[in-house]
Structure prediction request, 781 residues.
Amino acid sequence: MRILWCLLLVAWATVARAQTEPIVLKVGGAYSTWGIPDPNSTAPFDRARRTVFEAFTKKHPEIKLERFTSLSIQGPAAESGILMAYAGGTAPDIVYVNMRLMRQYIGQGFLQPLDGLLTKYPDTLTRVHPNLKKELSVDGHVYSVPYAQFVQALYYRKDLFREAGIDPNRAPQTWDEFYTYCQKLYDEKKGQWGFTFPPSDGSWYWINFLYAAGGDVTRQNEKGQYVAAFNSEAGEKALAFYRKLMTTKGVSTKSTTRSQDISAGKLAMWFSYQSDDLTNMNSFDLNPSLIGIAPLPKGPTGLRGNELNASMWGINASVKDEKKLQACYDFVNFMASEEASQIRVQAYVENGLGQLVNPKELKKWGYEEFITASARPWLESQEALFASGKPEPAGPNMAFIYKLLDEPLDQATLYPDRSIKQILSAAEQKVNSKLLNYADPVTVAQRRTVASGIAGVILALLSVLLGRVFTQAWRGRKLATASMAGSKLPLRTHLAAWAFMLPAVFSVALWAYFPLLKGMVMAFQDYRILGDSKWIGLDNFIEAATQETFWKGFYNAFAFTGWLLGLGFMLPIILALMLNEIPKGKVIYRVLYYLPAVTTSVIVAMLWKQFFDASPQGFANALLSVFHIEPQKWLQDPAQAKFAVVLPLIWAGAGPGSIIYLAALQGIPDEMYEAADLDGAGVLTKIWRITLPTLSPLIIINLVGATIGAFKIMEPVLVQTAGGPDYATHTIGLEIWYNAFMFLKFGYATAAAWMMGLVLVSLTIYQLKVLQNVKYSTAGR
Prediction:
């Protein structure tokens, strides 16, 4: 009886504890700044947002909010960390979404419909602007709710306008005026520019010009499929204007230091957001009276166009527990509510930012005394921009649309004589195939027929090859059995051998061959992270074989191999020969040469990226200036980018390679050199006749290994150039990585990896043949 009472008591305590424990919600997005604000941040905007989160926690003590963090990746793939989190089952419960990400997340099954939320809280979408609200419904369901809304506006410094003789209260109204203002505001001595684009994702600014010209990034065809729409007359006008801005001296440039340039008075105009709460989102420590905000200039159509966006919350599709789901509903509704808006406005006012807040919001919540004269033009600008705004590009896989739209912008400036139409046509084809998964049905059918024939031939050849291999193996087994007749090993010996091998065999099978087989299946699927994958036959292989970037990656892989072998393969051997002749301090030199191997390739790439900064202040350009050589673009120039990427790899790999060769040199008997001395051989003769022939097996092995390593190069390129400019450094490894973790085309990536694997297997077979003839011996000293 006592045991029964004890069990009942334990059960009651477990239930009571479960009821009192808070419901934990993990909140976040691709960037840490998109989730719960950093508790240590003192920035006014973060403090205002943090106040809203604290108010929710106070109102709902039964709910505990946790900050989601994911793998941090530099460069254009920075937003792919959360995709990996979904793949690993560690994604947040409340997911940050914007207009560009929304349809991709929905298509991948990341988000669940919010029908239950809108039933429980029917007024959740009350504050959403009509131009945004109509974009929220996908297949009759709403998957995300905006809690903040934004429009891109033209910001400018009034003091710089005055200095240039421009009316500080009149922003440029047309493209022509914008161009003229940029020319007037340029000051070479001060390093002052009228306007700048960011070095990457510059198309985020450019789409404003596309919208103003009457164009769009995507559209739906008659079948409801999304296709690229920027290869149009409007697109040509917008790209031609961009080329004019960037190729005319003293008009516009690219800058990695925009914030510092604005604060230092080196940048007169820039695009930035206005929100529904803040009419001035200036965060550059400038007096608000110095800032002018206006609608973007009108395009040749006489229309204004600007990007419209929203920060939204969605709910992870994996949230099934009813209590947690209701807690998610409470969170999303609160963040989108008037109550949260009031808390934000109050926080801004208390932090001394009342003059930046939307005057309508100030009046609504009783802070009319903070409405200033300068804020009224900002409000007029905001209202006009929300009326003319277009949401970010819509369609599947739009998360990384700016990476592909950057390509025509780069080509327009790198190749000023190339036709605008030609540039846009190539970009349209890439966006359709890589992001929107659209291809002409007739062309697809023809390619499938050809691919089926090629696959049949390959299978026939593989069957013949495997047949020969098995036949030779069977004959070899017969000969071995005949030669061992009468000396058969007992069963116990066989069992003992397998017992020793089994852990290794199991480990290799689990971590090498199982993923290989899984990848073989994925190569024939339209693979989805959360399930519902579909068989599509040879389509992934067809797409890979017909993608220009795939073959560009192969070409660059061979080019990098040639660069690395031509410039860097012999360097370790030369260093080893020099180290071998040093009478004292060998250990110190070995350590110094080996140190780069201790540092990861990513860190090395980041350091050299700073070294090759294209500005006159960059270290490489500063060295060139000593010899009165003009600054070079380095990583931004297709003609120089390969060299700038290869040089750090040679620098980092020469030392470790020299240590290996040095060890091999110790195995060459001194008697051979002494005999050569007696014959009157010189230094070069001894190296050519003794050293290199003795090292030849190791040289051949390293040659094959270096070739395979160079062929698979990816991380340094991703960090330094991300494959650019204009695919000058794009490798097959990057092609695979981008398609898997940026475009979520895992089937395509796996098919491309198998095709690359065939090349590497051929090199490995050669390596194994070489190893069969290699003789190993211990060092002589």
In short: The CA atoms of residues 220 and 226 lie 4 Å apart. DSSP finds 31 helices and 16 strands in the chain. The chain has a mean pLDDT of 84.
